[in-house]
Design goal:
This protein folds into 4 domains: 162 residues, Molybdenum Cofactor Biosythetic Enzyme, Chain A (3-Layer(aba) Sandwich); 45 residues, Molybdopterin biosynthesis moea protein, domain 2; 94 residues, Molybdopterin biosynthesis moea protein, domain 3 (Molybdopterin biosynthesis moeA protein, domain 3), CATH 2.170.190.11; 74 residues, Beta-clip (Beta Barrel). Strands 1-19-21-22-18-14-17 form a 7-stranded mixed sheet, sandwiched between helices. Strands 8-5-7-6-10-9 form a 6-stranded mixed sheet, with no helix packed on it. A 5-stranded mixed barrel has the order 23-26-25-27-29. A hairpin with a 5-residue loop joins strand 25 and strand 26. The longest helix is centred in the C-terminal third of the chain and has 19 residues. The protein is built from 7 helices and 29 strands. Helix 1 crosses helix 6. The chain is 18% helix and 31% strand. With 418 residues, it is of the alpha/beta class.
Amino acid sequence: MTDMISLEEARALVLAQVAPLDSEVVPLLEVVGRVAAADLASDIDIAPFAHSAMDGFALRAAEIAGATEDAPTQLKVIAEIGAGDVFSGAIAPGECVRIMTGAPLPDDADSVVKYEIVAVVEGDGKPGSTVAFAAPTAEGSNVRPAGEEARAGEVVVERGEVIGAAGVGFLASCGVLEVPAYRRPRVAIIATGSELVPPDQVPGPGQIRNSNSYAMAACAQEAGAVPVVLPIVADTFEALRDAVDAASRAYDFVVTTGGAANGDFDFIKPVVDELGDLLMTSVNMRPGKAQTFGLVNGTPVFGLPGNPAAAYCGFELIIRAALRKMQGFAHVDRPTVRARLTAPVRKKDVRRLFSRSTLTRAADGAFEVTPAKNQSSGLFGPIQKSNCLASIPEGPQMLEPGDEVECILLDVSEEVPL
């Protein structure tokens, strides 16, 4: 395929070639943010017993049904139960038990009255004291019943569910310490360019530091994948062919930067074409028109442009969705909002423009978006200070302050509905 296609077509094409990876068993503390690959059930009732929701006095609600401020009901405190203790004795008429938060409710009690609204008539409120209740209470008040959150054998986390920090705690209480989760794709990052040197070297004449590998690896990591930065590849067909062939056999996804256009030293398209199936070569977007995608040895291979902003936009708008799908995420689209421009936008290019921009909230509560002053595709700096991509439609545009555009949020998870 050599024709330029829309961003929507490019995303659909790439997503059609990937699927959730196989699962692996992950220790509970390492599963946060990942997708469960199986239903997970509790081994016990949660909570395993009825317990007090606060410090107070456990009693039968019927004992104080007629209590008023003018005629309070007095009860004798016969015992005290702390968290971890169990009271197995009987509570006779006219008696109650002092109870702490989390302590099991005695068999003879059906409610708890919080300590702060109970008057101490005699003693210190502990066993042997007399306390007074100035109002009735409802049966079951301030009691968390057994099985309130889950019953033994009940599914508490479903397959496909993203496990958060609270979910880790919930699974721990259910006795689940190992979780089947979809595997995180290992992504090979290959920068091409004879002018590139590692970041720890001072560039010589005609050389630049390899920043793309680090940025794309960071993008992959933010998407939940496991990036591996491979050595820089020189601008020769043979060197890139050998690197892509080897990487496609060892990794789940291959991302290259540079060499995606049609120059004398741009080789990713012929390499993919020779080694496998070339499915895409250009996308109707700016920055990032030159984007190559295909399958080599059955592995997705994506060739991004060498310009930093173009590479970033291509990764963010297409590759990120594919990597999330491979991890079992149901939501692969970044949230979007409509926002008012704060500055004019003049565009002659027919391609859709993704302007690196900052989204803020105006005094009237509406969103406003300010494009970065420097939109050069060769810069990472403006992206670092941006939190969204303002999407300017295809074709020439003469947009004024106050005109609304769609903004793709870069700092909000795909799981957040907007």
